[in-house]
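Hi Y.,

Following your request, here is the sequence exactly as I used it, all 198 residues.
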Amino acid sequence: MVSGNGDRSLDAEPAHLPHDEQGLLFDDELSPLPNDAGYRGPTACNAAGITYRQLDYWARTGLVEPTVRGATGSGTQRLYSFRDILLLKVIKRLLDAGISLQQIRTAVHHLRERGTDDLTRVTLMSDGASVYECTSNDEVIDLLQGGQGVFGIAIGGVWREIEGSLAELPSEKAVEQGQAAELSDDELAVRRRQRLTG
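Below is the corresponding structure, written out as tokens. Let me know if you'd prefer a different format.
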């Protein structure tokens, strides 16, 4: 990724700043990441503001694959985690700003490698052609003074938006693949299986 004025491109190592150095753009007083819930495709689409066609394409091409449960065949439902939906929303915002899918793939790859705590301290800035990572107010100001930044996405702000959206939408408990099959069986399928196994 292109970077100017000493700003960190998305390929650079993340800076680890002390908590008290974070300012208004980098307020990370967020609730913990929910890790026991999965969200079906339509719910993920609703929360991220994307179409199901986009979601399906991005899953098939590996841009954002469901981490709770992938589709394993006909009739199985993909389940997306909170973090997956957060990435979907960021992708949507970058697309709306005119960023190329190639640049978005690079940004998503970088964000995927970050820890969740680090992620809340990131603001993505873009000039419409490149995406820059900023982890402090000073980096945002430097980028804007250099005339490069056109818009920014504070990941912590997107986090809060997703939390608010998902609070009103249905979720499912994350279960193991074998347990999911047992839970989805109807009574006839259970009797048939018992008869076959003796």
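Residues 37-197 form a domain with the Multidrug-efflux Transporter Regulator; Chain: A; Domain 2 fold (CATH 1.10.1660.10).

Thanks again,
Q.
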